[in-house]
Write a structure and sequence with these properties.
- By secondary structure, the chain is an alpha/beta fold.
- Helix content is 31%, strand content 25%.
- The strands form nine sheets. It has an eight-stranded mixed sheet, sandwiched between helices.
- A hairpin with a 2-residue loop joins strand 28 and strand 29.
- The structure holds 5'-O-[(S)-butoxy(hydroxy)phosphoryl]adenosine.
């Protein structure tokens, strides 16, 4: 399995060393020391983290492992919102800004911790008033506005299980998720605002509710004038429903293992998987990583550019940063609206100190050119992060030089909806290696193995596995425990993430992409991610997607779809140049047999290229479930 990946890159051993001040001033201190501390006594390590939070009743055991089921902080009682809100309201952070929201046309809304808590309690009481009880499922389908955060926290306050569906999913996808979770209430808004246009969310909800018998009420945030008409009994206004409710809502006492939320993620089969996360372990895992990986301090302004509708938003807009007591920035503005400087403008305007975004965004910024960020003052930034896909070396370099000004460490964080918290990265102060996410964080053990679970030699490709339970791990898949067990039985005694990876001689891990994104050409395994990365390393290429096409002789041939950078034109010469470039970077077996220049690639809303859609189109077949497709 070792032939095809970028051997040159793996052997290159190129590093960037951060300013030692970062390590000196970090919450973590020394990575290796913390990791050794964990290895010596894992329970003590996690206890130390958990003890920094407020519990209603302490745990009897840190972890019970009954393969493949883990229970963390057994019998402990807590409420995550008491940690994200009340804890700060009762200390010096009472009037600290918790949340800053920016909308279009200069709109801004600011919530202090005590103001956010008071909204959450009142909305929680409103949910109670309409009959929502602990354990009920509430579907949240909203734009990126503060009310989305309030709705999620209000559910957690009363022990209702939220199932957030990203506000860009179509009606059929929303219906599927509402039905599967048997949601009692749906919380939505009249519109989402995107690039100056109103997207009619409520109309999509109406369509999704045609066959959704479990739904008793729909709560609608009405943003537009004149106000949308509501059904007199079934539909309620987001603010009117809070009329007359008490101001106080004590946090529901939750068992550490009670569910906190369900979040649907796409699987290889097309039927989405309802990933179930629980209260105690998830709280500790997201708190720990927010504090020690992003190194959030009281004067930071933390901007995770994800939508709360994705796990990244759950863990690193809401639960983790708020548990730490951070100031969190969110915006409904897209990176290209009102112009391509929109996000850099926001960083300058808000003095963002920690930016956490995705490679797809970074590559889009590369495409429009560095003149845009160069117009703004980005000096407030001190740490920049990435998540969602491999951060290819070219994107790393651009991010590091153009955005981080050779000064900000990059935290490329590997994790999944299922893992709940980030697990692999290069922690503050450690030297960074372009193309490599880094090492497991303290508390986590990972390896790269063959299909029998045997570690592969350094610098060869294998399956990424997690070797021991971690607190924020998924507990099951909603109503599909059988499918949950597959994560732990594909390779015995470890969690198979489904990604291919390489571990360097230095222990750094390079993520190559999903194992199912592999093309076998003439018996060679070729990772779509590697060919794409090779293409993107050419100066003319902004983005690339690679698929396998059936070939009678080779089994598969490689077809590449390429978006060019501004200033480059498609031509046969360029095509040959790209072929030559891949040949010299990856070798002849990885050379695309066909290159098509395109303006756009089909992507999921979280920014992953949907190669399956390209492939289906290419072969003239049905792409199957495309509910996650962006447009
Ligand atoms: C898959 C999980 C975790 C939040 C967003 C995605 C890929 C994620 C990285 C990274 C390389 C990455 C993996 C993983 N991925 N982060 N830093 N480097 N690949 O969550 O939709 O559940 O997707 O995203 O392939 O398995 P998700």
């Amino acid at each position: 399995m070792t032939e095809s990946f970028n051997v040159k890159l793996v052997e290159e051993m190129k590093y960037y060393t951060p300013d030692p001040e970062y390590k000196r001033n970090s919450w973590l201190g020394d990575y290796q020391k913390a990791y050794d501390e964990f290895l010596t006594d894992p329970d003590a390590f996690w206890s130390k983290m958990a003890q920094q939070l407020d519990w209603i009743r302490p745990w009897d055991a840190v972890m019970d492992w009954n393969y493949p089921y883990a229970r963390w902080f057994t019998n402990a009682k807590l409420n995550i919102t008491a940690n994200c809100l009340d804890r700060h309201v009762n200390n010096h952070r009472r009037n600290k800004v918790a949340l800053i929201w920016r909308g279009e046309g200069g709109a801004e809304r600011i919530y202090t911790y005590q103001k956010l808590l008071s909204h959450v309690m009142r909305f929680a009481n409103a949910l109670k008033k309409i009959g929502v009880k602990k354990g009920d499922r509430v579907c949240i389908y909203m734009p990126l506005v503060p009310e989305q955060v309030i709705a999620m926290l209000a559910c957690a306050r009363i022990g209702a299980t939220h199932s957030v569906v990203f506000g860009g999913f179509a009606a059929a996808a929303l219906n599927l998720r509402i039905q599967d979770a048997e949601a009692k209430v749906v919380i939505t808004a009249d519109v989402a605002v995107r690039r100056g246009k109103a997207i009619q969310l409520k109309a999509i909800v109406d369509e999704a509710l045609i066959n959704a018998p479990t739904v008793e009420h729909v709560i609608v945030l009405r943003r537009k004038e004149p106000c949308l008409d509501l059904h007199p009994t079934r539909e309620l206004d987001f603010y009117a429903v809070m009329d007359g409710v008490p101001d106080e809502c004590p946090p529901e006492v939750m068992d550490a293992e009670d569910p906190l939320f369900i979040l649907y993620t796409s699987g290889s089969t097309g039927k989405p998987k309802g990933v179930v996360h629980t209260c105690g372990g998830y709280m500790v895992g997201t708190y720990y990583t927010s504090k020690y990986v992003f190194d959030i301090k009281d004067n930071d302004i933390f901007w995770c550019t994800a939508d709360p509708g994705w796990v990244t938003g759950h863990s690193y807009i809401i639960y983790g940063p708020l548990a730490v007591g951070a100031t969190v920035f969110i915006t409904e503005l897209t990176p290209d609206y009102p112009d391509a400087g929109s996000w850099w403008h926001l960083i300058q305007e808000q003095n963002i100190t920690i930016l956490y975004t995705a490679p797809t965004a970074i590559r889009t910024f590369m495409k429009v050119g560095e003149s845009w960020p160069n117009k703004y003052n980005l000096n407030s930034l001190r740490i920049i992060g990435s998540v969602g896909e491999p951060l290819n070396p070219e994107a790393f370099e651009w991010y590091y030089h153009v955005i981080g000004k050779d000064r900000c460490p990059i935290v490329d964080t590997w994790w999944q909806t299922e893992t709940g918290m980030l697990l692999i990265t290069t922690m503050l102060g450690e030297k960074m290696r372009p193309g490599f996410a880094g090492k497991p964080i303290p508390g986590v053990t990972v390896d790269v193995v063959d299909k029998n679970g045997k570690p592969v030699p350094a610098n060869s490709m294998g399956f990424l596995v997690i070797k021991s339970p971690w607190p924020a791990m998924l507990r099951t898949l909603y109503k599909d425990d059988e499918r949950y067990r597959k994560y732990w039985y594909t390779i015995d005694n470890c969690y198979t993430a489904g990604d291919l990876a390489v571990k360097g001689k230095d222990g750094y891990i390079m993520i190559l992409g999903r194992a199912d994104d592999i093309i076998i050409v003439a018996g060679h395994n070729i990772g779509t991610a590697e060919v794409e990365s090779a293409l993107v390393s050419h100066k003319a290429v902004a983005e690339a997607a690679v698929i396998g096409k059936p070939d009678p002789v080779k089994g598969n041939s490689i077809k590449a779809f390429v978006i060019l950078r501004v200033g480059h034109q498609p031509s046969d010469n360029l095509r040959q140049d790209l072929v030559h470039h891949v040949r010299t970077t990856l070798g002849p077996i990885a050379v695309p047999h066909e290159i098509e220049f395109v303006d756009k690639l089909p992507k999921t809303r979280s920014g992953k290229i949907m190669r399956r859609v390209l492939k289906a189109k290419e072969m003239g077949i049905d792409p199957g479930d495309i509910s996650t497709l962006e447009e």
